[in-house]
Prior knowledge:
Blueprint: E1 4-9, H1 15-27, E2 32-36, H2 43-52, E3 58-65, H3 71-76, E4 83-87, H4 96-103, E5 112-113, H5 119-131, H6 135-154
Parallel strand pairs: 1-2, 1-3, 3-4, 4-5
5-O-phosphono-beta-D-ribofuranose binds at residues 9-11, 13-14, 38, 65-67, 88.
Amino acid sequence: MNMKVAVIMGSASDLEVMSQAINVLEEFGVEVVKRIISAHRTPDLMCEFAKSAKSEGIGVIIAGAGKSAHVAGVVAGMTTVPVIGVPLMTKDLGGMDSLLSIVQMPAGVPVATMAINGAKNAGLYAIQILALTDEALSQKLDQFRKEQTQKVLDATI
Length: 157
Ligand code: RP5
């Protein structure tokens, strides 16, 4: 059975950026579970989601949030499914609040933190994790990298 990737986010206002992760995953043919789950506003839902993720066939969780962005870290504390955090840009502190909330995890509960608004790389990183045990996905990644390289070589200035 092919593993799914969950893309969760703290608010519907995060969707515009987090769509970059969803889009790249869907382009690679990965099934995506999408949920709005807030660490602060829906803690019970978050707990339920994290505890059932593995049995639901989710192989990687991508968690995007802004401000005091706790969704990635708290979910990571409740599952051994790898969690990728995406700190989202904020008006007041330029996303540094989100970045620092996600990146400084205590030893024992890792979260792979992407750049501020780095949702596309989160999607690609999730694909790279799944590709370790999925040959078809691995081949698609090789092709993606080749095309990416060629675009640089073809670019003219
Ligand atoms: C965070 O607060 C969300 O992840 C979002 O980035 C930010 C603002 O949320 P809304 O006020 O737009 O719902 O929890």
